[in-house]
Design goal:
434 Repressor (Amino-terminal Domain); six-stranded parallel sheet; LacI/GalR-like_sensor (chains A, B); LacI family transcriptional regulator (chains A, B); homodimer
Chain lengths: 361, 361
Amino acid sequence: MTRRSTGARGRHTIRDVAARAGVSASTVSRVLGGAYPVSAATRTRVMGAVRDLDYVADARAKAVAGAGTPTLAFVLDDITGPSFTHMAHGVEREATLRGHLSLVCSTDGDAEQRLAFVEMMRAQRAAAVILVGGAADTPRERERMIRTAESLRAAGSRLVLCGRPPLDGDAPVTVIEYDNEGGAQAICGYLLAQGHRRILYLGGAPDNSTARGRARGYLAAHHALGLDPDPALRIPGDFTRDSGHRRTREALAAGLGFTAVFAATDMVATGALTALREAGLDVPGDVSLAGYDDIPFARDLHPPLTTVHVPYEELGRLAVRSALGRAADGSHGADEHLLLGTHVVVRGSVAAPAAGRAGAP
Amino acid sequence: MTRRSTGARGRHTIRDVAARAGVSASTVSRVLGGAYPVSAATRTRVMGAVRDLDYVADARAKAVAGAGTPTLAFVLDDITGPSFTHMAHGVEREATLRGHLSLVCSTDGDAEQRLAFVEMMRAQRAAAVILVGGAADTPRERERMIRTAESLRAAGSRLVLCGRPPLDGDAPVTVIEYDNEGGAQAICGYLLAQGHRRILYLGGAPDNSTARGRARGYLAAHHALGLDPDPALRIPGDFTRDSGHRRTREALAAGLGFTAVFAATDMVATGALTALREAGLDVPGDVSLAGYDDIPFARDLHPPLTTVHVPYEELGRLAVRSALGRAADGSHGADEHLLLGTHVVVRGSVAAPAAGRAGAP
């Protein structure tokens, strides 16, 4: 067993690192200190030399080492949800291409956690802080977001809201939305066109902006045909597999009577599918099923899931490009607001209601 | 439209925050400065007051704000893999309970990214840095890990390796392993006991420690029965759904001849299942299928997947408890090495080979 002395480290100087990396000492200093601009290739070379020599910067350099690598921050509510982890993957890839490190914070929906993380990222002078996912769309929440946007701007950073409602006024924020209402209206219109008239909607939390957008689309599709869906068919809940499973069991037990299910997310649809199967119902023979998100394993379900495609990985890349492209040209003027379209992916989980069958009890 | 002046903020003093939170100014300072110990309840109260008053600390306090919230860092290779995101969720929950913020960095397997993140976390004085997932088990990689462990110790932090190979000697590291070899041996033993003799193994990268452990289990189960499996049946690849799908198609096209598939992860099994179905093969009627990890939607596949359960969320909690419990009692002595057991979960995807059938071509 070899004990390595920590005292043996730190013997190399910044000049040794510079020599090994083939750059000047001031470039090493800029890389470690986070000063712009340094190319990704130079950074890689310098950090490689730092590692090879096990270089330990002096105390002052250490103090700024937290700001040593330019960073991007990505904040989500639930790290176990596949849609946002694919978006995080897009953020990470685009950030890496641009020489930034992306940090992820999952808050479990806790506003204090989010605040603490944003504070930390502001102190680190992160180039941008990207918040993703539905939010409680209340005046208090909007007020908080405006403060966050302004405090980040004051630190030279930028708030990016992705799949969250835009803010009032001229808050310094980039907003990237995907069309929750339009996508939901399209897929519910498809279910209605197949002849379904009692469509169970497994929604989200009542004040969640994403859930509300999808619920509006469900209603709009009905209204477009002059239909007024039974309110008993709209059941709120979490965006999880277990919630979809439980709500479907309960709806069947309550004898709600439906021939199709529209799940507000594919995770909810995954749980619903298993609950339908456990009840001896065939999908789509007895009950049709549609989801939202098009997470990668939607096509691996049996039957493969008809759903609404949201380009999550591309959304993550776009959020980074918007934030960094903006920083690069130094503009801090107009708001930016992008709305991306979605589309229905038809697979095998939707069919016309069987003639003479009432569907689920 | 209301433009909020950033100059209007910062008018509150630390005493205002203290009064609102019902604590002393020095407590506010401790919370913002990251000094121990501060209870989670106090931290929440103080941070609530900071938010309510939109308090902006002075420059010095700002400089340490990066270290203001005690942090834990979690590093994984692929944020889209559900097993590690569930572990990240366990880390996050346990960290929150203990008043720490957990930061996640997904590196796409890039050692430079990992190094930059570890440097940042060291500068922030993160309480612990948890690395998860298989690694290339080479002398160079072990040497790097030993340096990382020592540099973190020098900063008062702690390296935790989870599901990664232990280091040589007395490096200051906590190692938490789950039993890859034992789990693989158990599930392959189960396939063999059902009568399967040609089991396709869809493994991982050849030098990945997790993949190697699972491959050893596959071989050990055969050797225990005096069998020597055909090396052509062991096919390396990535731990992804797409890799499982592609390799299964290729194995079928090559006419390898197998009656069962052991996929090294459930994601690989998910892709394999779809490829088998696309080839017109029934699971388990024509080919049996077993996975590894027991990710939540394994039970939502059709048929539900027989697999090896790894308690990922609990692993994440345990990693945090080990690291912080240790820091609390101040001990910096013995290595810590935990090995958690796994168990087979029998569902519907494995059956005896059909009499008179050769299985897949």
